[in-house]
Structure formats: structure tokens, C-alpha cells
Amino acid sequence: MRSRLVGCLAAAAVLVAGCTGGEPSSSSATPAPPPPRQHVEPPTLEPIKVDPSPLWDSDSIPLKIGYHQRFATRPEIRGDTVILFGTGDDLRTSALAVVDAPIGKPLWSYREGERLRSGKGEAFVSTGAIKTVDLPGGRWGVLVVFGFPTKPYGLVEARGQALLAQDGQVLWTSPIDGSLTAMAANDKTVFTWRGSNADRATVAIDIATGKRIWDNIGSIPYAVASGTVVSLRPTPETAGGNLDDQAGAITGVDSATGTQRWDLGARYPKARPIATAGHLVLVHTDYAKYEARRVIVLDARTGTEIADLGEAPSDACGGDGRTIVACAVRDRSAPAYQYDLRSVRADEGRVHISARTVTAGRIDGIWAGRIFLTDFPMGKHPHGTTIVDREGNQLSQKLLMLGTAAVSDTYVAVQQPSGVGPIAIHRIVR
Fold first, then answer.
1. Residue 145 domain-assigned (yes or no)
2. What is the rounded distance in angstroms from the CA atom of residue 229 to the CA atom of residue 249?
3. In which domain, by residue range, is 201 found?
4. Residue 367: which region, alpha, beta or left (left: phi > 0; alpha: psi -120 to 50)?
5. Residue 380 CB-density burial (10 A; 0-12 exposed, 13-18 middle, 19+ buried)
6. 267 is a domain residue
7. What percent of the chain has pLDDT over 90?
8. Which of 359, 350, 306 lies closest to 331, judged by CA?
9. pLDDT tens for residues 229-265?
10. 164 has pLDDT over 90
């Protein structure tokens, strides 16, 4: 999920700020107001039909992967494989399972403290989220945290990052002290957060070798966008809390060198990144969980503001990582529970308001231009998911499903919007 700067002088100011690692010029950061609503356009994307009956759910596999607040990780779908990470069947420790999507059979799995295959005594540790990454030759791997059991209690303390192949074998381990969470990656580097209030840092690791490349002290990596690691430097008030609650100064760090390109802390000291698409970054300027606050779009390369989407809660916004970011914004001129879809495409760089309003105010995901909206039950109005395009045209009948957790060409993973409970896999019908 490409942009256009307004005026030569503004562009020059931004380039200077980017080169010096300072804050982009505020003179270039006054986005134009959204355009008026367009006339209704017919759908340009093919409708999607999802089989309402799940193929299986996570309670039906031996590990019974559920959810635990410490390990809030959405499932991922790679081809005919689903990667699940959450609370195991003992409801206390966590487990990782890679599952054959058509039949729900685990291909391999690890429980908390289990020794990694082909390793040197390292054990699986679930101190943070797992993440899949692309590898050469169309392959992929899973980043996990490893540790070594301690005596006499048998506990496992985090000791570093490990990359597992598609079959669960260890490709490499990279020793790092502290609590770790793999947060972002591109095709060359994984960016891990070393979580400690006294020694917080982004650690860059070479995907091919596991070699540590650089550290950026004080930041938490959120995403990689156009060669920039979009990072967060939390405020003292939020630094020790749950990752979902943290807010602070957003910075742009060069993914190759670890040097800072820009910093928005002086202008927005309590901001938080929400989503990315290409070089676009969607940002809450004054983050408060579940509350409607101003949302802007940045150019990750320079930190320049290029669009203002209005006010929306963070769960009303999303991006597909490649082409588009969007928010469902309350239309105050319309009846209750009516929302505009306000979106920016990376190849346009301007705000587009949907021709139709929508009735669901939560964006669970965006996939191939299709926006997955979830609403909540109100009287006789049932809970469900609707798929629309950026104009608000429906691309599916209302699906009486829980929130959308992951989407691929063939499958949809759904779960309660709170993340509690089992994950169900549905097939997309052609």
C-alpha cells in the first residue's frame, strides 16, 4: 500500500528535514480538506462469496489454539497453510501451530518450552508475537523467540530470535538479551523489539544469516514502508504497558543503516501508527484506544503529512500493506450508524470519500482492494461482516461471522472482534 507533495518550497523543506533527521516542516503539513462526495460508481471489483460453514476451527486441533492477552497475534495464511499462535489447551502457556488449511491437520507445532528441531538445545518461548517472513525461492519462515530451560524450575527465559523453516526446522538463531517481539520485516531484514523500559531498542537482523546489523535505542518498530522503519518512541506514561496501549513520538529510521530520517515527536507527542500501504502510513495523532481521534496519512520516506482523514477510532482504520489505507468516519450529516469510507491509494496520494455510506464502523482488514467491515448487534440488527469496495458498494451478502482475522485468495480466518475464543477457517467459493 505513492504520494504527491504540494509546492516546490514545501518539498524542499521536507527533504532538508529528512536529511537531517529532524521534524518535517509544518508549512508542508496542512492537508487539503476532503473532496465532496462523488457520484455513485458501480462496483469495479468482483463479488466474493464465503462459505458460511467453516472447514474447521482451532478448538478441533489437538493444541486448541485460542487467545491470551499477552500473545495477541492474528493468524496468518500462506497458500494452503494457516499459522496459529495463542494460548494452548492448558489455558496458561502458549503454543504455535502450522496447520493444513483444507483439513485442519497440524503439520507441525511447538508448545511453550519444547525443544526446537535441529537446534542446539534451544526451546520455544512465547514472550511475544510470532511473525512469518518471505525467504528466497518463494519459501517462507516463522520468526520465534528461543531460550534455554533453567534449573530447578524448568522455566524458559528469552535469549534471542530464531528463524524456523516451513517444516519447523531451525535455520538460524540470533542471541539477544531481553524480552523480544518480532514486529516488522522486509525481504532482507527483520526488525525486533527488545522490550525493556531501561534498554528498549529496535534490533535489525539479517534474514539470510541471523547476523545482528544495528540497534536503534529507545524505539519500537511498527512496520517497514519504502525503506523506512516506522517506529514508536513511547511516552513515559505508556512505556511499561501493553503494546496495544502505547503511544508517543513516531519516527522514521533508515532500514539499512538504523539512522533516523525524521521525528514527529514535537508536533504529535502522543501518536501511534495504525497501518501502512506502500509508502503511506496511517497515524492517530493523539492516540486513545477505541476513541475517535484525528487520523492523518504520512509519507514514510520524509514524514510529511499528505492527507487528513478526519476523526476515527483505531479499529475503524486499516491498510493492506501495499496499495491502500482507509478509515470508516462517522457521517454526522446522516442518520446514526452511517459512515464514510475515506481512503488514500499509494498511487494517488489524495483523500477519496466513498460515494455510499456504510453501516459498519469497524475495518477488520483490507485485501486486494476489498474492505472487510464488521458491525455489532443492535436490536434486530445482527452482528456480521460485509465486504465492500472503496465506494461503499457491497461485494458480498452480509456474512453472519465474527470479525475477520486474516484473508487470502482461498480462505478467510474469523474470530470474535475482541480476539477471544477459537479461530474458524472458511473457504472462499469461486
1. yes
2. 14
3. 8-429
4. beta
5. exposed
6. yes
7. 42
8. 359
9. 999 988 777 665 666 778 899 999 999 999 999 999 9
10. yes
